[in-house]
Amino acid sequence: MALDKYNKKRDFDKTPEPAGGKKAGATELRFVVQRHQASTLHYDFRLEMEGVLKSWAVPKGPSLDPEDKRLAMMVEDHPYSYRTFEGDIPEGNYGAGHVDIWDEGTYTAAGAKNKAAAEKELLQGLAEGSISFVLQGNKLQGEFALVKMKGRQKDAWLLIKKRDEFAQEGYDSEEHLSKAVTGKKTAVAAKPKATATPAATAEKETEKKSKKDTVKSKPADKAK
């Protein structure tokens, strides 16, 4: 089952995270980006497909700058109900730390005429290692691509902003926080280190090979 891995990693008597199951959105596909202050700060980028949230951990956060090719580590599917989750995952639990919704909205496959066509195209692209999609969020807008890396860790992808009217040079997701999140940064940072997540592990391994966030390996399919 799609959520078996997610459920096995969590004790729902000890974490407020939703167990949930598959549930399709109404008429449009949904996305969410959650800022996750775990052992290492990262952003969780989630796209609705097949009634669950396909998920990637993005250590540096998403960017509107087409020059930024953000490492995105694909992780286990999350339940659709995770789309609205915010709060604290207690220490000792997988992914312990604070979670805030950084951005959310709807999305579709680039050029798709309806939800069914979009989902079919997205799932095919996911299997092939390259998907293009258009976000309609409060912060993230316009066309993006997720491209699976070749010759690296099997779950390593790149999140890339396409060049369009929504592109912004020098974009930093940490400079676009809500006031509530900004006020929590110092308090959360002072907490003891929590259970390591795939994003934290992946970031450390990547930094050993390169000091830059732009990964030099060629993608399996070049984003246009």
Describe the structure.
By secondary structure, the chain is an alpha+beta fold. The protein has one domain. 19% of the residues lie in helices and 33% in strands. It has an eight-stranded antiparallel β-barrel with strand order 1-2-3-4-9-8-7-6. The protein is globular. About 9% of the residues have low confidence.
The percentage helix is 10-25%
Strands in their spatial order, largest beta sheet: 1-2-3-4-9-8-7-6
How many helices? 4
Radius of gyration (CA) equals 17 Å
Number of domains: 1
**What is the approximate shape?**
globular
**What is the mean pLDDT?**
85
H and E string: HEEEEEEHEEEHH
Strand content: 25-35%
The largest pleated sheet is described as:
8 strands, antiparallel, barrel
- Overall number of strands: 9
Q: Please mark out the parts with pLDDT under 50 across 5 or more consecutive residues, or reply none.
A: 186-195, 209-218
Structural class: alpha+beta
Distance between the termini: 34 Å
List keywords for this structure.
33% strand, 4 helices, single chain, eight-stranded antiparallel barrel, 224 residues
Summarize the SSE layout with pairings.
Layout: H1 4-8, E1 29-37, E2 41-49, E3 52-58, E4 69-79, E5 87-89, E6 97-109, H2 115-128, E7 130-137, E8 141-148, E9 156-161, H3 179-189, H4 198-209
Short summary of the structure?
The chain has 224 residues and is α+β, with helices and mostly antiparallel strands.
